[in-house]
Amino acid sequence: MVGLAPPPQAVVVFNAKDVSNWRQRNGQPAVWPVAEGVTTARGGDIMTKETFLDFYLHLEFRVPDMPQATGQAKGNSGVYLAGRYEIQVLDSYGWEVPGMGDCGALYGQFAPLVNACKPAPEWQSYDVIFRAARLDEKGNMQEHARVTVLHNGIVIHNNIELPGPTAGAIDNQEGVAGPLLLQDHGDLVQYRNVWIV
Ligand code: MG
Q1: Could you tell me the pTM of the whole model?
Q2: Total Cβ atoms within 10 A of residue 23
Q3: Which has the closest alpha carbon to 85: 27, 147, 39, 138?
Q4: How far apart are the CA of 50 and the centre of ligand 1, in A?
Q5: How far is ligand 1, taken at its centre, from the CA of residue 90, in Å?
Q6: How far apart are CA 194 and CA 60, in angstroms?
Q7: C-alpha of residue 3 to centroid of ligand 1, in Å
Q8: How far, in Å, CA of 144 to CA of 120, rounded?
């Protein structure tokens, strides 16, 4: 839910002051601007320097109000779990039956169970419970990654099994700790209150 405070054991990956905990895909320092505790997608994708295997993630986002834009051009960004599995961020408010590219979708794999979007530019939340894939000693897949996602407090994915990374993943190394990655898709999507347990 919006405003959920990090518990004591949380890693506050966005400190509300700067993006010093983040870097670009090429390893260069992240350059997203920060103002009033909010960072805005501008200057390429960013990912946390710290990596995580199994985790609980909370973050808040808001999509800009873009009344002239449609489809994938309307407030596009994305939250890549372990850098490999994108939960889509998009302005999909009002769609009765959201698809695999709409807000809350595991991009290209699973549509959200329901459309839980708020209208732009309201703040929204994702709460995510992620369990990484499990491999045997030879690196063979034993159990796929699993994820549960709440969008604005509403369950939109319930312990689904992810068949593999989504498009744009940093790599295909499932079962290995990875960063949280936030996508810059050219729209001025904003983030705040980002923490991981
Ligand atoms: Mg996206």
Answers
A1: 0.97
A2: 18
A3: 147
A4: 22
A5: 7
A6: 7
A7: 23
A8: 34
